[in-house]
Amino acid sequence: MLARWEFSVVTVFHFFFVPLTIGLAFVVAFMQTLAYARHDRDWDRLSRYFGRLLLIEMAVGIVTGIVLEFQFGLNWSAFSIFVGNIFGAPLAIEALLAFFMESTFIGLWVFGRDRLPRSLHLVSIWMVSLGTVLSAFFILAANSWMQHPVGYRISHGQAVLTNFWAVLANPVLWGSFVHTVLGAFATAGALVLGISTWRARREPAGSEHRPAFLQATRWSAWFTMVSTVLVAVSGDVQARLMDVYQPMKMAAAEALYHTESGASFSLLTIGNLKNQPIFQIRIPHLLSLIADLSWDGQVKGIDNLQAADVARYGHGSYIPVVPLTYWSFRAMVGAGICIILLSAWVIWATRGTRSEAFLAKRWGTRAVVAGIALPFIANTTGWVFTEAGRQPWVVNGLMTVAKGVSSVTTADMALTLGAFVLVYSALGALDAWLFVRASKRDLDDTGHDEGHADAEVAGLVY
Amino acid sequence: MSSFAALDTTWFALIGLLWAGYLFLEGFDFGVSIVAPFVSADDQDRRICINAIGPVWDGNEVWLVTAGGATFAAFPLWYGRLFSGFYLALFLVLLALIVRGVSFEFRGKLTSAAWRRTWDWANFAGSLVPAVVWGAAFTDLVRGVVLAPGGVYFGGLLGLLHPVALVGGLASATLFALHGSVFLSMKTGGGLAERARKAAVVAGVAATALLAVAVAWVALAGRPSVPGAVSPVLPLALGALGVLAAAGGTALVATGRGGLAFLSTGLAILAGLGAVFSRMFPEVLPASNVASHSLTIAGSASQHETLVVMTVVAAVFTPLVLAYQGWTYWVFRQRLVRATAGA
Description:
The structure holds 2 protein chains of 2 kinds.
Chain A: H1 2-38, H2 41-75, H3 77-111, H4 118-147, E1 152-155, E2 158-161, H5 164-169, H6 171-202, H7 209-245, H8 247-254, E3 260-261, E4 265-271, E5 277-283, H9 286-292, E6 298-299, H10 302-313, H11 322-349, H12 355-360, H13 362-370, H14 373-388, E7 393-395, E8 399-400, H15 410-440
Antiparallel strand pairs in A: 1-2, 3-6, 4-5, 7-8
Helix pairs in contact in A: 1-2, 1-4, 1-6, 1-14, 1-15, 2-3, 2-7, 2-15, 3-4, 4-6, 6-7, 6-13, 6-14, 7-8, 7-11, 8-11, 11-14
Chain B: H1 2-39, H2 43-53, H3 57-74, H4 76-85, H5 87-107, H6 113-143, E1 147-148, E2 152-153, H7 156-160, H8 163-187, H9 190-221, H10 233-254, H11 258-280, E3 283-285, E4 295-296, H12 297-300, H13 304-331
Antiparallel strand pairs in B: 1-2, 3-4
Helix pairs in contact in B: 1-2, 1-3, 1-6, 1-8, 1-9, 1-11, 1-13, 3-4, 3-13, 5-6, 6-8, 6-11, 8-9, 8-11, 9-10, 10-11
């Protein structure tokens, strides 16, 4: 139980920063490319400004990532031994291909601004972005194998790799990879949108920074909207994969207890999910449409799946915590829809020469700033949904969570859990504070900028 | 079957190499962080120290992540038993690395002296703790620990803090301090480089003595050789080479030959690690109580298919990683000095 809490604390915390890092690295690389291609001073300034914010997040993302690499061995040794043949390979490959790339090139990008040719400096930030995306791919390869094991056989109580290409070609992997990376882009997009709008409002009229931030506002509104729409499309594809490979998760997302044909989609439920809800909004036939693209398609219910699982795996409960899956799924989708509406509104409100009128809208711009929180809600609840929906399995159909833990004493586990919670809370608070502080700094303030060649000392940074 | 046997031994050696890369590289950046408080005259010196390793420490640390990942993939049983067994020790390392990692980025964000002192302290402690733990853990691995059947370790943190492991931990910490001071003496100039050179001599004398005690102690304690082990002369010779290289590095830096000294201190780290891995072979987690409780290479390795995939990936991508990491060192090769000292 403690091991579960510890893992959820360290992964959820890590996953709070990671999408932002993946997304911001891409955004900064994109801005820097625009700056070089168009010889645009504003894009250059913006890429430096958001680059400073990226570095703060990256520091936390990296250190919490190292913890995760060892978390499997620390608290989940039985799981590690069972799956290591398959699960370990993507992790090792991630370190070799992706982690080295992002860590080395971020150093080059930070310190090499005045030392590398411009083209190589630009290549560096793109390599960082590529590294973060590759990293997501291999981590999700490992995770997707837990959702839908492929390319293996069981030998002497261990899952043994039989086909590595099958692991990499896992349809669940490609679904979640596209969904996660686009979600990361949307996260960074909404952040840039919120910050730029806020900063553009604060800059006095006539300041040359005002148009620069407005330029970022308009660009990021498009970037956010396109990314989020694609997130929705990929999520829809994932739903059909889920219907095939993890029908229990699908049923739990919908709190659908009995198998139905032409199943309706539940928008909202107040009261008990299982028996008599007090109030409910449902859209007829939509769930069947989502699940297999047919009007009257059959969607299996929780009770029916449970009976089938008992027949297959033996006595026990194979049902996830339904309120958790139901509500986390709704929070994710709801936050996603809000992001699309908000970014579309910004595109509309800033069209043509209406940017100043947009900035004058007090509540509208406040909503855009508050919108920074939306992707974080969607990321966290989405992650909770996909992991909680697999319960009680740690590897779907092969190993339950309860069997995966280490033989570590409860006291030791409580100690490390307590310490992680403490350190991570402090880290989160510090990070947020530094982030806000850095975002308030002047657009051109390179005073103690990373990689800024100090007049006194060559390459002083910290 | 013969190719299978060869592949798992190859991966044992490769994991040894990953650790070697890690300790050689992070060894000097740990060392710089450890000696920085003692050789810096003011805030600017501190910043030069940190900047000397700023562009590279992160890439150096990834060698550890890769060693961890490779162990997970190639030896799941070793990975599972080692890290759940050496639980609190590894946890301490992780906490230290978190604090250290963010200290690099956060330190410069405020100009307040108290803020910077706090992060300087975090950077120092976050480097010292892993530097001690790695040496102690590897000493425990060669001397063996008390294991239940199947390689399960229940001894807790205290069981790892045997006196010889403590000596081993201090040996690694002082050796890294030596390695890092030599690096600083090459990478900086003026008074700072001179103080780093003096610190290197102090650390070097301590490291040589501690390493000699650790090597002799482990050799004399004489855990019996298991079938298939290499002759105990090889690890002993490597240990002795490590002691000599540490002494040589100290002498070289004392006489102002920084480059050669750095190679020599690096050799001391590699020889020490070589002694550990050659003494463990063919086991990966040796038991000090009942030999049959040890985990062996053959008994904990992944199946053939996994090892083949890993070998192909490593063969293709390791040269690439080495190339761009090497290039980074080339880009940031010049000395960091104050303007008054001639920049």
